[in-house]
Amino acid sequence: MQKVAEGISHWIKTLPEEYNSMSEEEISNRPLPNKWSKKEILGHLCDSAINNIERFIKIQYEEQVYVIQSYNQDQWVTVQNYQDRTLDEIVNLFQTLNKQIVNIVKNVPNEKLSNLCDIGNNQHKTLEWLIQDYLGHMEHHIHNQILIENSDF
Question: Mind listing the pLDDT tens digit for each residue in 26-47?
Fold first, then answer.
């Protein structure tokens, strides 16, 4: 879990620098009408953190197998109106939420890492897998949608 905590910490520090090097047009442009802007992608990562904080905590104490509740990602981004919010506000939210996740990850007792959760379609995964997947999901968006120029995703 140390590597996951270090990976998340890396992005807490470097992602704001990456965004601050981009123009307002670059972070606000939607490559297609039904695709998110880079600002909205950062908002989506905040939403992911919000949902996963609850999961990472509850999987440690609720009866197994803990059932993951999905959420409508597009509606979360729309309702929270990330597109019209300031970049600083979204960056601060991203950093605060992910600092909390780092704290949780660092404090998960080893014996709880094998606790199971149902991620849908009756697929059971461990808490350890879910935490690792969280970082993988974050880095997928960062590498494939945020850090690329002239993105068409």
Answer: 999 999 999 999 999 999 999 9
CA pseudo-torsion sign 93, 144, 140, 7? negative
Strand ranges (DSSP E) for the chain?
66-67, 116-118, 124-126
Per-residue pLDDT averaged across 94-117, rounded? 98
- Contact present, 27 and 38 (Cβ < 8 Å): yes
Non-local (6+) Cβ contacts of 53 within 8 A are 97, 100, 101, 104
Answer yes or no: is 151 within a domain.
no
Residue carrying structure tokens 């059932």? 67
Identify whether 96 is part of a domain.
Answer: yes
Q: Is 131 helix (H, G, I), strand (E, B) or coil?
A: helix
In a domain, 153, yes or no: no
Q: How many residues belong to the chain?
A: 153
Which residue's structure tokens are 């007792």?
Answer: 109
The CATH number of the domain holding residue 19 is: 1.20.120.450
Which one, of 55, 70, 48, lies nearest residue 116 by Cα? 55
Sign of CA dihedral 19, 23, 28, 34: negative
The encoded tokens of residue 1 equal 């879990």
